[in-house]
Design goal:
Helix content: over 70%
Strand content: under 5%
Structural class: mainly alpha
Order of helices and strands: HHHEEHHHHHHH
Number of strands: 2
CATH class of the largest domain: Mainly Alpha
Strand order of the largest sheet: 1-2
Shape: globular
Radius of gyration: 19 Å
Number of helices: 10
Largest sheet: 2 strands, antiparallel
């Protein structure tokens, strides 16, 4: 296996561990222990840790070690604002092309979840993430998909800090996803973009409310939620 493949494998495995909450906030990530755990050399592990730090998932403190990045409120806000930009554009572009088989499957799964008397929060959220992934694939824009991949990882890290949705908010999110899908199906890009903005803003505000935080008011908010 080539050096680059070893590095890519280490990157993917360590990123999965970080996003699954495997490491405590104050736990240093040891090159040696990760190398043993992944059955890879220390060089690809070291390179993977550096790449994950560049991607905003880890923080390297000289003489102290490498740690999972602890996100501030400003970090959460910036991730949210970037999601508005990228995912709003993804919804717009997907709607210009119409639904893909992947989006159709997600819509079917979302309708199935919605039809139940008791909603499964974890299942609905997994389908929701898949819906967002499929929406980017439906754009036909490889660079946009690549940009989203890094954002997706940072969003996953942010969600570790935030409480899980309530059943009420989960049901609302399912309906919002289906509204976005309806706009894509109707090939109405403006409506798809507006509905995505409203969905992301509602989700962000629900998370902050659960945290007991207050979202700062900005002039852009009115534009996104119009």
């Amino acid at each position: 296996m080539s050096t680059s493949l070893h590095r890519d494998r280490a990157y993917a495995r360590i990123r999965d561990l970080v996003l699954s909450g495997e490491f405590a906030p104050d736990e240093p990530l040891s090159e040696r222990s990760l190398s043993d755990r992944l059955a890879l050399g220390r060089t690809p592990v070291r390179e993977a840790l550096s790449a994950l730090a560049r991607d905003g998932l880890l923080t390297i403190h000289p003489m102290r070690g490498t740690f999972v990045r602890q996100l501030s409120f400003d970090d959460l806000r910036e991730i949210h604002e970037l999601r508005l930009a990228l995912e709003g554009m993804a919804a717009y572009l997907a709607a210009t092309r119409g639904p893909t088989e992947g989006l159709e499957r997600c819509a079917k799964d979302l309708r199935r979840v919605r039809s139940r008397a008791a909603i499964d929060v974890e299942e609905a959220q997994q389908i929701g993430w898949t819906f967002h992934d499929e929406l980017f694939r439906a754009t036909g824009n490889d660079r946009l998909v690549q940009a989203y991949d890094n954002l997706r990882a940072q969003s996953g890290l942010a969600l570790q800090k935030m409480p899980q949705y309530s059943t009420e908010r989960t049901r609302q999110a399912v309906n919002e996803h289906l509204e976005i899908y309806a706009s894509v199906e109707a090939q109405d890009p403006d409506a798809a973009q507006q509905r995505m903005w409203r969905h992301l803003s509602s989700a962000f505000e629900a998370r902050l409310k659960a945290l007991g935080a207050v979202r700062p008011q900005t002039s852009a908010k009115g534009d996104h939620r119009s």
